[in-house]
């Protein structure tokens, strides 16, 4: 079984595909044009990755806040019929209900997209990038996650 972790890029250059955590600077992050070859590019990349992690936590918070606002608007309505079904007030059967649902779906799309992009960035296995992602997510959770619970 060949354990070689390098591949040939279309330009004929050999690029490593890391399968373990490392601190080397010769990395491609997410796109072929995002190459980390020096320490300055690594610092810039860490800030970008950390900010996107922070943004993901902000999107989670925004989605939660939108859901809370929609729920609080419905709090004045008796929630069940005599048969146990959920009552959807007539004011929520129209445009306002569906616009809230579309907004929640929009949040879900962007959260999922960002989460998968960040997972792929983490899979570079560069310790600096991985730590900056975890730090960005943690800072975002500190600012926004505490308001959810």
UniProtKB/TrEMBL annotation:
Subcellular localization: Membrane
Domain of life (superkingdom): Eukaryota
Keywords assigned: Copper, Copper transport, Ion transport, Membrane, Transmembrane, Transmembrane helix, Transport
GO CC, one annotated term: membrane
Chain segments annotated as transmembrane: 39-59, 101-119, 125-144
Mode of membrane association: Multi-pass membrane protein
GO molecular function, one term: copper ion transmembrane transporter activity
Stored InterPro entries: Cop_transporter
Pfam families: Ctr
PANTHER family reported for this sequence: COPPER TRANSPORT PROTEIN (PTHR12483:SF31), SOLUTE CARRIER FAMILY 31 COPPER TRANSPORTERS (PTHR12483)
Family under the similarity heading: Belongs to the copper transporter (Ctr) (TC 1.A.56) family. SLC31A subfamily.
Protein name, entry field: Copper transport protein
């Amino acid at each position: 079984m060949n354990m070689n972790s390098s591949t040939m890029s279309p330009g004929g250059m050999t690029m490593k595909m890391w399968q373990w955590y490392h601190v080397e600077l010769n990395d491609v992050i997410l796109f072929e044009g995002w190459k980390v070859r020096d320490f300055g590019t690594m610092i810039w990349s860490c800030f970008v990755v950390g900010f996107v992690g922070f943004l993901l936590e902000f999107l989670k918070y925004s989605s939660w806040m939108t859901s809370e606002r929609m729920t609080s608007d419905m709090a004045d309505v008796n929630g069940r019929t005599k048969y146990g079904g959920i009552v959807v007030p007539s004011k929520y059967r129209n445009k306002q209900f569906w616009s809230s649902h579309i907004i929640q779906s929009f949040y879900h799309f962007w959260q999922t997209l960002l989460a998968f992009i960040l997972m792929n960035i983490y899979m570079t296995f560069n310790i600096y990038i991985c730590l900056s992602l975890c730090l960005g997510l943690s800072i975002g959770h500190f600012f926004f996650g505490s308001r959810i619970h």
